[in-house]
Automatic annotation (TrEMBL):
<keyword id="KW-1133">Transmembrane helix</keyword>
<dbReference type="Pfam" id="PF07291">
    <property type="entry name" value="MauE"/>
</dbReference>
<dbReference type="GO" id="GO:0030416">
    <property type="term" value="P:methylamine metabolic process"/>
</dbReference>
<keyword id="KW-0812">Transmembrane</keyword>
<protein>
    <submittedName>
        <fullName>DoxX family protein</fullName>
    </submittedName>
</protein>
<keyword id="KW-0472">Membrane</keyword>
<dbReference type="InterPro" id="IPR009908">
    <property type="entry name" value="Methylamine_util_MauE"/>
</dbReference>
<feature type="transmembrane region" description="Helical">
    <location>
        <begin position="83"/>
        <end position="102"/>
    </location>
</feature>
<feature type="transmembrane region" description="Helical">
    <location>
        <begin position="122"/>
        <end position="140"/>
    </location>
</feature>
<feature type="domain" description="Methylamine utilisation protein MauE">
    <location>
        <begin position="1"/>
        <end position="139"/>
    </location>
</feature>
<feature type="transmembrane region" description="Helical">
    <location>
        <begin position="152"/>
        <end position="174"/>
    </location>
</feature>
<dbReference type="GO" id="GO:0016020">
    <property type="term" value="C:membrane"/>
</dbReference>
<feature type="transmembrane region" description="Helical">
    <location>
        <begin position="48"/>
        <end position="76"/>
    </location>
</feature>
Length: 368
């Protein structure tokens, strides 16, 4: 039992640290997931939850950092009993979220491990149940974890350091781009290729004849077999990774193919209300310099705002250039910055830039 307790203790602390760091890698993505939960709860339990939506980014960093700090405290066995009680609160909270999502089909991905590892609601709930099992083993057998690795002032220093590092990691990612990009539009990805299925769909057919049921990998030519059901054998591989990338103009004319050909610098403005206006003096300079590039880079603007809103906005910030429209969810997946830049070469992502890291035109040319 002593060895089992220590394995559970180590696993529980490691999972919490890993889960928190993955979320801190992309705090905006975590905030978007929190917003999704708040919107669902506001609809099902009352408008009280709408209060939290504007604070989702702060909550994202706080909750993710808390996971890291609790994991560190557990591994150091610092204030073990108190740490375990706080861990229980988080596990019960996350368990409720995942069960509610699974049972009522509310949120299809819990965001437990960010975009690094996507889990279905029932798998997420099973994961939380497993962690509760680990917690129970550790809680009931604390006598095997008597040795504390950081006591008194030393323990406080370690926990303070862990808190500062966790918050710092999240804040920096919030003000720039994720350290590791797990989204379909990461640097190096070929967007047109990801819009196609990796392989042809393979099916199996369940047929019935005279009370006998049989499975076929090809539809039988024998007409005495009656169709019962069909199942796709390779659902993931036969489905494109990117299914919703579509660019259109104010008249709803599709320009997707045009955007994915040649050298393009896309200025992504997810919505004009939240866009940082202070950066547009530098942004406009880059757009103008890019248009004169020796690599024939065409600057384009893509937004999810309405044509009327965007027209007023671009005049307000003196933003020149051709502009198109796309779905808001697509733009949030493309880049965690509003505004932000994506450099494309025949649909291949060559560079991504936060508005805090606006590059020179020469740097863009070097990437092509």
């Amino acid at each position: 039992m002593k060895q089992l307790t220590r394995i559970c203790w180590l696993l529980l602390g490691t999972v919490f640290i890993f889960s928190g760091l993955v979320k801190l890698n992309d705090p905006i993505g975590t905030a978007l997931k929190l917003e999704e939960y708040f919107e669902v709860f506001a609809k099902d339990f009352g408008s009280f939850f709408t209060f939290f939506i504007p604070h989702s980014r702060t909550l994202s960093i706080f909750l993710s950092s808390l996971e890291v700090v609790l994991g560190v405290a557990l591994l150091l066995r610092w204030m073990l009993r108190q740490t375990l009680w706080v861990l229980l609160g988080l596990l019960v909270f996350f368990g409720f979220l995942t069960f509610y999502s699974a049972a009522f089909n509310k949120v299809t991905d819990c965001g437990c491990f960010g975009d690094f590892l996507k889990l279905t609601p029932w798998v997420s709930f099973a994961k939380d149940t497993f962690l509760l099992g680990l917690w129970l083993v550790v809680f009931l057998n604390q006598r095997y974890l008597r040795r504390v690795f950081a006591k008194g002032t030393t323990g406080v220093m370690y926990i303070t350091l862990a808190s500062a590092v966790a918050v710092g990691v999240g804040v920096r990612a919030l003000g720039h781009l994720p350290y590791f990009d797990f989204l379909p539009y990461k640097i190096g990805n070929n967007i047109p290729q990801l819009m196609k299925p990796r392989e042809q769909a393979k099916y199996q057919y369940v047929m019935e004849r005279n009370g006998e049921t049989k499975t076929f990998t090809e539809y039988p030519t024998d007409s005495t077999w009656k169709y019962k059901s069909m199942e796709v054998l390779n659902p993931e591989a036969s489905k494109p990774v990117i299914t919703d990338f579509s660019i259109f103009d104010a008249e709803q004319q599709n320009h997707t193919d045009e955007v994915l050909k040649g050298n393009k610098l896309l200025l992504i403005i997810q919505n004009v209300q939240d866009a940082d206006r202070d950066r547009f003096k530098d942004i406009n300079k880059l757009m103008e310099a890019t248009a004169k590039s020796r690599k024939q880079i065409q600057p384009l603007i893509i937004t999810s705002s309405s044509p009327q809103e965007f027209d007023a906005f671009r005049h307000d910030v003196n933003l020149p250039g051709t502009y198109y429209f796309a779905d808001a969810t697509v733009l949030k997946s493309m880049i965690r910055s509003n505004p932000g830049f994506i450099l494309l070469q025949d649909g291949v992502v060559k560079g991504k830039y936060h508005y805090h890291d606006i590059p020179d035109a020469s740097k863009l040319e070097d990437l092509l």
